[in-house]
Amino acid sequence: MVDQLPDSMTVIEIAEPGGPDVLRPATRTVPQPGPGQVLVRVSHAGVNRPDCLQRAGRYPPPPGASDIPGLEIAGEVVALGEGVDPAETGRRVCALVTGGGYAEYCLARPEHCLPVPGALPMAQAAALPETLFTVWHNVFQRGFARDGETLLVHGGTSGIGTTAIMLARLFGMDVLTTAGSDDKCAAALAVGANHAINYKTEDFGERVHELTGGRGADLILDMVAGDYTQRNLDCLAEDGRLVVIATLGGARSEINMGKLMVKRQQVTGSTMRARSDVFKAMVADEIFREAWPLVEEGKLRPVMDRTFPLAEAAQAHARMEAGEHVGKIVLEVKP
Questions:
Q1: 145 φ, ψ (degrees, to nearest 5)
Q2: Residue 121 confidence class, pLDDT cut points 50, 70, 90
Q3: Which PANTHER family match (predicted)?
C-alpha cells in the first residue's frame, strides 16, 4: 500500500440524463482497492461513444460498476488490494475498466492492465484499451480475420475505425472503409486504408463489389446496423462474416435469410463492458501476446484527435457527438 494518498478526488459526474452539459465536476472519496484490485492515479482517460450513451441514459453501468463515466485510463498504480502482487506498485499502465475513468483515481484489475512502454505518451496509452479490446475481440476472435482477406470498416475515422484499419493492415489484410466526407476519406487513407468510400456520394455496396472484383468483403465491422445490415450482407463474400458492435442506425434489422444461407454468411455481435472479469482477462492476455509487441515496437499508435482537461469533459462529449473528430478524444486528468 502506498502512503499519503488523499482522502478525496475530483471526478466528473452525470447530474441527470441529458446532453453534454449534464457533466459536472464533483468531489468524491478516493476508492479503496478490494481483493484483486489496484488503484490507479489517472493521468489520462479516453472518451468513447458508450460514455455519451451512458450520459444520455441509454447505457447504464452494469451491476457493481462505478456510475462515473470512463472505460479506459492510463496512469500509475498507487495502491493494491489483497492478493495483488506487490510488484504492481508504481507500474505505468493503461487499463480497460467498467467505469470510473473520469476521475483522479480509478479502480482496475491488474489482469485488465497493459504495461505502458517508456516511449508511449500517457495520453496515447489512455486511447488504446477500449478500442484495442473491441477490435481484437470482434475482428480477430469473433470475425476470424485472416491475412490476405478484405475487411470493410464502417466509420473509418472513429477511434474504433482507425484502430481497426491499422491493426488489420499490420496483420496483412486489405482494408476498405467508409466515411462521411472527402476529407475524412483522405484521413482514413492516411491511416492506412487501401480504399475509402464516401457513403454520402457513393453506394458503398456497389463500390465494395467494384473494388473486390465482384467477390465482396470477407469481413465487415459495422457500427450502424438498422438498414445497413442487409446492405452489408449484399456486399459480403461467400462464407463472409458480419460483426456488429453498435446500432447507431437502429437496433432492428430485416434481412433476407435465403440470401444469407446461399452465401453461407455469418452474423455476430458483442458488447464488452458487461462481460466477466475472467473473459476480459483472457482478451487482455491475447492482446498482450499478439498485438502489444506492435505497440512496444512503435508500429501501432492511436490516431489522436484532441485532448481536453478533465473539467472540459462536456466539450469533449460535444465534439464526439458532432462527428467532427478523427481518431481518439482524451481527457487529461493529471499531467
A1: -60, 140
A2: very high
A3: OS02G0805600 PROTEIN (PTHR48106:SF8), QUINONE OXIDOREDUCTASE PIG3-RELATED (PTHR48106)
Is the pLDDT at 1 greater than 70, yes or no?
no
Contact 307, 333 (CB under 8 A): no
Look up the pTM and report it: 0.94
Question: What is the DSSP-derived secondary structure letter of residue 103?
Answer: B
Q: What is the pLDDT of residue 334?
A: 85
8-128+273-332: CATH topology is: Quinone Oxidoreductase; Chain A, domain 1 (3.90.180)
φ, ψ for residue 321 (rounded to 5)? -75, -20
Instruction: Report the alpha-carbon distance of residue 39 to residue 45 in Å, rounded.
Output: 14
For residues 290 and 268, give the distance between their C-alpha atoms in angstroms, rounded to a whole number. 23
d(CA 271, CA 283): 13
* Cα R_g (the chain), whole angstroms: 20
Return the number of other C-beta atoms located less than 10 Å from residue 317's C-beta: 25
What are the boundaries of each domain within the chain?
A: 8-128+273-332, 131-269
What single DSSP character describes residue 88? Answer: G
CB burial of 221-237 (b: ≥16 within 10 Å; e: otherwise) equals: bbbbbbebbebbbbbbb
Instruction: Please name the residue that has the C-alpha cell 486511447.
Output: 127
CATH number assigned to the domain covering 131-269? 3.40.50.720
* Inter-CA distances, 265 with 28, 101, 240, 268, Å: 50, 38, 5, 10
Pick the closest to residue 130 from 320, 324, 335 (CA basis).
320
Q: β-strand 174-179 against 195-198: which pairing, if any?
A: parallel
Beta bridge partners of 308: 331
What number is the average pLDDT over the span 113-120?
A: 97
Output DSSP code: residue 139: I
Amino acid 3: pLDDT: 54
Of the chain, the percentage scoring pLDDT greater than 90 comes to 97
